[in-house]
TrEMBL record:
One of its GO terms (biological process) is DNA-templated transcription initiation. It comes from Bradyrhizobium nitroreducens. The keyword Mitochondrion does not apply. This is RNA polymerase sigma24 factor. Keywords: Sigma factor, Transcription, Transcription regulation. Residues 116-166 form the RNA polymerase sigma factor 70 region 4 type domain. Residues 26-90 form the RNA polymerase sigma-70 region domain.
Length: 173
């Protein structure tokens, strides 16, 4: 979710408990939550369940989120955890052995792997995708990315780490 889609005023009002602001925040966040859940969960039913659970968790915990900048990362981690929980409950938990995952990726035909990597980039939320593309495709430095985005080095590094983790997760589903 792009933090730009949510005004700081709306976020702060929701964080402080304004019911109208919370409803507006939920309405604004829902499409991005649903899109990310569809890209992350194993089935459309799980995606819908994860979306509803994420909205419920957001409703209950919006007051604990420290800043608008942390909001999208927190929210997407909630969705990812819900998708993983649903997969585990169905007995479909993803592989955890990194060496096996890497070996499986290397066995794919190069053309298929390229398409899968492109799809993984597309599935990323925009703020993660931008950082990953700048670093891994355009080969920009962390400082250059931070300057281009008007963000701190720590923010860029965190987004890059998260983007790579999400792509790894996408590629191993």
């Amino acid at each position: 979710m792009s933090a730009a889609a949510i005004s700081p005023k709306l976020f702060e009002a929701a964080r402080l408990g304004d019911p109208h602001a919370i409803a507006s925040l939920l309405e604004t966040a829902q499409p991005d939550i649903r899109r990310y859940a569809r890209a992350t969960c194993r089935s459309s039913a799980d995606a819908e369940d994860a979306t509803q659970e994420a909205l419920w968790i957001l409703f209950r915990h919006v007051g604990t989120i420290r800043s608008l900048l942390a909001f999208s990362a927190w929210l997407f981690s909630v969705v990812r955890r819900e998708c993983l929980r649903l997969a585990r409950r169905a007995g479909l938990a993803p592989a955890v052995d990194e060496s096996e995952v890497e070996a499986a990726l290397l066995l794919r035909p190069e053309a298929d792997l390229r398409l899968d990597v492109a799809a993984a980039f597309e599935a990323l939320p925009p703020h993660y995708r931008d950082v990953a593309l700048m670093r891994d495709v355009k080969e920009m430095t962390i400082d250059e990315i931070a300057m281009a985005l008007g963000a701190t080095r720590q923010t860029v590094k965190a987004r890059l780490h998260r983007a790579r983790a999400l792509m790894r997760e996408y590629l191993t589903r």
